[in-house]
Amino acid sequence: MHKLKKGIVYLLIAVLCVTQLYPLFWLLTYSLKTNEEILDGQFFALPKSPVWDNYSNAYHSGHYLKYLSNSVIVTATVMVCVILFSSMVAFAITRFRFKWGNLIMLIFLLGMMIPLQSTLLPLMIIFRDAHLLDTRWSLILPYVAFSTPIAVFILSGFMKTIPHEIEESAYIDGASVYRIFRSIIIPISIPPVMTVCILTFITIWNEYILAATFISDEDLKTLPFGVYSFVSQYQTNYGNIGAFLVMGALPVILLYFILSEKITKGMVAGAVKG
Predict the structure, then answer these.
(1) Per residue in 154-170, pLDDT tens?
(2) Are 160 and 92 in contact (CB under 8 A)?
(3) Contact status, residue 241 vs residue 27, Cβ threshold 8 Å
(4) Alpha helix ranges (H) inside 175-237
(5) Closest CA to 252 of 220, 219, 215, 204
(6) The domain 62-268: what is its CATH number?
(7) How far is Cα 96 from Cα 107, in angstroms, rounded to an integer?
(8) Which pLDDT band, with edges at 50, 70 and 90, does 142 fall under?
């Protein structure tokens, strides 16, 4: 019976690994094929001869560096703002004893339930009147607004578990609220902060709807737009598209592997109080 349970666990792990890793492997092989190989219907076949020129074409014809730099600027700005705002809000809600704390938390939780698509028209009107269309602010502001609620939820769940005695000792030693937040709470909260980083990064890095709605200037478009460089009226270069998608996914994969240990700790942070 024990061996059967162990076998079932191993089987489930194997199925999970295959379902998670195979799409990446398929995309990699897809990016090394010619159009003829892709269109012949043999989805599981390996490339007969790897076409490395797909990556060169994706880099040059897809304006990879330009779109990459735009994505990095927008994503980095959003991440800094989200971490700063959400950590301060979570600190105020969980560490200050005031009667409106639960109501403020509820407001942020409601923010997680608003569909992004329902805000497109109001935001379009607001940004048009504020002359923010076709600027990076038309992406940064809504990205921050939509990413902050989940970040507050994650960070507040962890900060609730931090003993208040730590702050009381610091107060006795003469530390200010800002010093406690900067030197005690934030260093302790690094694991959930890393989780917020990777979740925000993945969400903003792959976002297309807002970027397509608010940005029409070619010099401000982000990485997802690079795919359309290989789509014309009469022909679509699927191999180049695959190569561009691999190059676009690399920063996310690298960031996850670099921060994987802290992300795992952050996902369970606050689940067990101790």
Answers:
(1) 898 888 888 878 877 88
(2) no
(3) no
(4) 177-180, 186-188, 190-205, 209-214
(5) 204
(6) 1.10.3720.10
(7) 17
(8) very high
